[in-house]
Design a protein that fits this description.
Layout lengths: L3 E4 L4 E5 L5 H18 L4 H17 L1 H12 L3 H25 L7 H4 L6 E8 L2 E5 L7 H12 L3 E5 L5 H13 L7 E3 L7 H6 L3 E7 L2 H13 L3 E5 L4 E5 L5 H13 L9 E7 H16 L19 H16 L3 E4 L16 E4 L6 H4 L6 E7 L2 H8 L4 E2 L3 E3 L3 H10 L6 E2 L14 E2 L2 E2 L4 H6 L2 E8 L2
Parallel strand pairs: 4-5, 4-7, 5-6, 7-8, 9-10, 9-15, 10-13, 12-13, 15-16
Antiparallel strand pairs: 1-2, 3-19, 8-18, 11-12, 14-17
Helix pairs in contact: 2-4, 3-4, 3-7, 4-6, 10-11
Length: 463
């Protein structure tokens, strides 16, 4: 894939970029080492000052960077503004909380006395340059949720962003530069995917974090494993949205629409499989289908647009194949299932609801990355749990119930990195984020995510 800005609403290539040559990559790796030598010893107060300044600049730039994101990957402009605001909020959260999250731990002297220690502590020390391989779907947030904790921990960042969001990638490097970070603390590497292996194998790169597809994750994890380097992986998702008979069904249906089509349906944590108890199935499907049908598909730059185009032509083709396969195998198409007739250009697809899904359909096991929902009818709790777990993914989950016993059962038995009750999955800097099974490993956000790229060091004192 060329490094280029291609407007998904029109298919027009607006700007192309040359990949960095080997000499420039070498210069930037050397610069990262120098920057780490300085930044790692910077006091938390200074790190917080720098990150707070970056947040202020991002707030001032919100309209411009929102338009850039929408132009590059097609998210509705209102969602793009919200993404920029969320990034600034997360920066300020880490600026405020990082020092306490990474504070030294002091075991009680009596607990370590038999080790021969008079005292001991645990310190969280930065590890160096971390390579971030990031996707296009949340081109600002995915990077900031890595960069903010990494920089506050004293690490430095190297960003290999998706090739269809180069202007957003370059903006991020410029943002941290303008905030006053030492040169080399955060660098964007405009390179193709073929350059990642050599960069990751370089001894000056300490670790890697990747958000993206399962094939990309397997590749980066294998390379890092061969080099014995730490990785964090956030991969695909096919999140269940379970509605039990005790739920507020109309509220669940309204939220279900938002949960399925956020970011034009192109989100790993979007609800994708809607599992509904038989007693309320018809009511939920009626309200949910009506809500999906009523969404406004249009130009993502328009304030009234709910759903814009998919980010790439191939992404739409992949989605069409999943829907066509399900319909061929006798799934019921309740709405959508086609390209909107009013658009003669761009990669649009109608919000779609499919029911009567069976295991032989590809969409039952594969992630639908776009505004397509599958709905299942279940008899009760046991069947709901089994179906929720009948996926190779385990990123997050949503459950609607007002029964305390059901809450405990779902929290215990759903195989996912999160269980959100009576709401939709969302990430927040105070809460750990990550998955199980083929959705990856490790955590981002909160103190858990911050410590992923720290050297957890035992400091022991003898007599």
């Amino acid at each position: 894939m060329p490094i280029a800005t291609v407007n998904p609403a029109t298919g027009e290539t607006l700007r192309t970029f040359e990949a960095l040559g080997q000499g420039e990559i070498e210069r930037r790796l050397a610069l990262a080492v120098t920057a780490f030598g300085e930044h790692r010893t910077t006091a938390f107060g200074r790190r917080a000052e720098l990150l707070g300044r970056a947040a202020d600049l991002l707030d001032a730039d919100r309209e411009d960077i929102a338009r850039t994101m929408t132009l590059e990957m097609g998210k509705p402009i209102t969602a793009a503004r919200a993404e920029a605001a969320k990034c600034a909020k997360a920066m300020r959260w880490y600026a405020q909380h990082a020092e306490e999250l990474l504070a030294d731990e002091h075991p009680a002297p009596a607990d370590v006395k038999d080790s021969g220690a008079t005292r001991a502590s645990v310190r969280y020390r930065p590890i160096g340059a971390v390579l971030a391989v990031m996707p296009w779907n949340f081109p600002l947030w995915q990077v900031v949720r890595f960069a903010a904790p990494a920089l506050m921990a004293g690490n430095v960042g190297l960003l290999k962003h998706a090739s269809n969001v180069p202007q957003t990638a370059l903006y991020l490097e410029d943002l941290f530069r303008r905030a006053g970070y030492p040169e080399g603390c955060f660098q964007t590497l405009l390179v193709g995917s073929g350059a990642v292996e050599a960069i990751l194998r370089d001894s000056r790169v300490a670790a890697a974090t990747l958000t993206g597809s399962e094939p990309a994750g397997r590749s980066v994890a294998a390379i890092a494993g061969d080099e014995v380097k730490k990785t964090v992986m956030e991969l695909g998702g096919s999140d269940p949205f379970v509605v039990m008979a005790s739920a507020d069904v109309e509220s669940a249906a309204r939220t279900a629409v938002k949960a399925r089509v956020q970011n034009n349906g192109q989100s790993c944590i979007a609800a994708k499989r809607f599992i509904v108890q038989a007693d309320v199935y018809d009511t939920f499907v009626e309200h949910f289908t009506a809500g999906m049908r009523d969404l406004t598909v249009g130009d993502p730059m328009e304030e009234s647009t709910d759903v814009g185009p998919l980010s790439t032509e191939q992404g739409r083709l992949d989605l069409e194949e999943l829907v066509d396969d399900a319909v061929r195998l006798r799934a019921t198409l309740r709405c959508g299932g086609r390209r909107p007739e009013k658009f003669d250009q761009g990669w649009y697809y109608e919000p779609t609801v499919l029911s009567d899904i069976t295991p032989e359909m590809r969409i039952h096991q594969e992630e639908a990355f776009g505004p397509v929902a599958t709905v299942y009818r279940v008899a009760g709790l046991d069947e709901a749990v089994a179906l929720a777990n009948d996926t190779p993914f385990g990123l997050s989950s949503n459950v609607w119930t007002r029964d305390d016993a059901e809450v405990e059962r779902f929290a215990r038995d759903i195989e996912a990195g999160g269980v959100f009750f009576n709401g939709m999955t969302a990430s927040h800097p105070a809460l750990p984020f990550g998955g199980a099974k083929r959705s990856g490993y490790g955590r981002e956000l909160s103190g858990h995510g911050m410590r992923e790229f720290c050297n957890i060091t035992t400091v022991w004192h003898g007599a």
